[in-house]
Amino acid sequence: MENTRPPLPPFTMETALQKVQMAEDAWNSQDPERVSLAYTIDSEWRNRTEFINGRAEIKAFLTRKWQNELNYKLKKELWGFRENRMAVRFEYEYQNTEGQWFRAYGNELWEFDENGLMRKRFASINDLAINESDRKLYTQGDSIVLPDEYGDSLWDPVLAQ
Predict the structure, then answer these.
(1) Alpha carbon of 37 to those of 123, 138, 141: distances in Å?
(2) Which of the residues 28, 42, 47, 86 has the least number of beta carbons within 10 Å of its own beta carbon?
(3) 139 - beta bridge partners?
(4) Nearest alpha-carbon partner for 130 in 104, 91, 151, 150
(5) What's the CA gap between 46 and 71, in Å, rounded?
């Protein structure tokens, strides 16, 4: 039997936001083993044009990814949720092995099993070459921050109610 990964579905606003933050933290660790443990053994992914199946392929994919995407910083944001599914928007910045900076924008659709492990992840991602001076993601303590002027506060009005 696989481990459980709280919070478990069905999600509330609080637990959905917690799940997204946990994913952001794991991905920012750039540790393929740590990240892969959030997915089912037979997890199904589409990442850009790649189709990835299972934890072993996820770990191999992430290992390749972070060998080529240096100085990686990611910010995820909950877009919507219901029951065991979430929609997440994100952006991340990285530098390729030639030194060129990029910002990647994307959306993910997630589906979780009853143990809180992600069984499906479908990601659509676009890259934009940027100058180093155009970077906007920065570290504040243990968190990656996308300043509010760039739309970091999507849920602030909802949570304030």
Answers:
(1) 18, 26, 25
(2) 42
(3) 144
(4) 104
(5) 24
User: Which parts of the chain fold into alpha helices (H)?
Assistant: 13-29, 32-36, 55-68, 156-160
Tell me the whole-structure pTM to 2 decimals: 0.89
Express each pLDDT in 74-103 by its tens digit.
999 999 999 999 999 999 999 999 999 999
Tokens of residue 103, six digits: 């910002």
Measuring CA to CA, which residue among 99, 65, 18, 79 is closest to residue 9? Answer: 18
pLDDT in tens, 99-138: 999 999 999 999 999 999 999 999 999 999 999 999 988 7
Tell me, rounded to whole angstroms, the distance of Cα 54 from its chain centroid: 17
- Sign, Cα dihedral of 145, 151, 154, 157: positive
160, two tokens = 């304030």
Contact predicate 90/78, CB 8 Å: no
Please give the structure tokens belonging to residue 73.
């910083």
**Are 81 and 87 in contact, with CB atoms under 8 Å apart?**
yes
Residues 4-52: tens digit of each pLDDT: 999 999 999 999 999 999 999 999 999 999 999 999 999 999 999 999 9
